[in-house]
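Closing statement on the adenosine-5'-triphosphate sub-project.
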Amino acid sequence: MTAERDEILRVEGLGIRFGGLVAVNDVAFTVRRGEVFGLLGPNGAGKTTLFNLIAGALRPTSGRIWFEGRDVTRLGPDRRSRRGIARTFQITQPFAELTVEENVMAAALVRHRSLAEMRAAAGPFVEMVGLAHKRHALAKELSTGQRKRLELARAMATGPRLLLLDEVTGGVDQASIPGLIDLVARLRAEGMTLILVEHNMRVIMRLSDRMMFLNRGEKLAEGPPDAIAAHPDVVGLYLGAAHA
Ligand SMILES: Nc1ncnc2c1ncn2[C@@H]1O[C@H](COP(=O)(O)OP(=O)(O)OP(=O)(O)O)[C@@H](O)[C@H]1O
Ligand SMILES: [Mg+2]
């Protein structure tokens, strides 16, 4: 199976319904190692739900998920994290009463036994996201942009080989956006495999190698960023709205 040698994630026939709502419907795609796969779609398209399915927070109603050639469909989120899948949350979820460093240490728990080991492991990630000066600040004292940085550090501290980023720039003040985009660009340059949810068309086009367009839980298109940007539905939903 040489053609699939570089494949890190495979999703087939994936679906989930919440009562009568089909939030993700028969979605299939693969992601190659080292690639940035951009996920585009309007509000409610099912992007975060897809992340929940890949990370194991939700069990699909149908379909299967393979990570590094192994079926992980039935594994819970902790075991998937240990296998190398990490994610950030659209609404950040740090331990509010813990410090920045402690939050990252807690994420590193997966890989380390002693407190000293965890602290040593956390340091580089706190620095990587530019929060060294906030190391001892409580998570609840951070700005939204800083909280997004903490999310990234927490995800990276688990030692992922696949990282799901859910709107890293979402809800963040304008001034913090370029720094966050730079951080994602650095992860990309270092060869991290990323699935990126991002509403800003220019940003997602610049960062992605391939993109998938999702609407009402269904995959409408997949391809290079230019082709996705030119897709009639994307034009209608994004560019039309942007020019309105
Ligand atoms: N746990 C849940 N229970 C019931 N419905 C849900 C649940 N999670 C998501 N949904 C619904 O599934 C649909 C897809 O939601 P999802 O959050 O995945 O969209 P999204 O593409 O991430 O949107 P946004 O761009 O606003 O973040 C929505 O209609 C949402 O209301
Ligand atoms: Mg979402």
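Residues 2-243 form a domain with the Rossmann fold fold (CATH 3.40.50.300). With this model delivered, the sub-project is considered complete and its resources will be redirected to Aim 3.
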